[in-house]
Amino acid sequence: MPKLLGDSATYKIHSYKGIGHLPKGLKPKSDARKRILLDQLPRLLQGYGHTPHYGTIVIICDLDDKDKQVFLSELNSVLAACHPKPAATLFCIAVEEFEAWYLGDLNAIRKAYPKAKDSILSKYINDSICATWELLADAVYPGGSKALSEKSWQAAGEQKSKWAETISPHMDVENNASPSFNFLRQQLRSAAG
User: Fold this and answer.
1) pLDDT confidence of residue 59
2) What are phi and psi of 61, to 5 degrees?
């Protein structure tokens, strides 16, 4: 965030344990303590609508294999159902997954993982639906995505967190080739003024 907004911007990040699904009828069915983003989104946005001092709410999530326009329409329907609405809400979608944003800066990956396989990285088409995290794993993880997939889903999640910690410090946010990352950057800067 400091790379995107500078050191003077204030923000608070709320992480979730999964994306889940928008609930039918916009009525959450899961326990709020489970921290599943889309399951709780109607309740969250309604709460922010009653708390105007929050400023801009930015919802960032993976697109996975969803249709982007349909997904954005569903998210905007949740927002439209809020009375009152939050002061300002932005939806920023990582196409296909957050790893697309790292793959938008191959130099950052190479700095974090000097032995990364260029033959794999060079095949990536920015923001394509192509099993993004698996491609990154094939480029940087010993044994690739197959070895990581043979472990538990928690191991894959831990590895994704490690990539965030090791790659993002090297990212050049002004020269990222991912269109969805550039949209996020532009939206955050616009919201921050």
Assistant:
1) 94
2) -150, 165
Question: Does residue 108 contact residue 167 with C-beta atoms inside 8 Å?
Answer: yes
C-beta neighbour count of 64 within 10 angstroms = 14
Check if the beta carbon of residue 186 is closer than 8 Å to that of residue 5.
no
User: What tens digit of pLDDT does each residue of 51-73 get?
Assistant: 877 789 999 999 998 999 999 99
DSSP letter assigned to residue 22: P
CB atoms within 10 A of CB 58: 16
d(CA 122, CA 139): 10
Nearest Cα to Cα of residue 97 among 19, 175, 12 = 19
Work out the widest C-alpha separation in the chain, in whole angstroms. Answer: 52
Q: What's the one-letter identity of residue 169?
A: P
Kind plus residue range of the DSSP H or E element containing 162: helix 153-167
In 3D space, the residue among 26, 23, 34, 22 whose CA is nearest the CA of residue 59 turns out to be 22
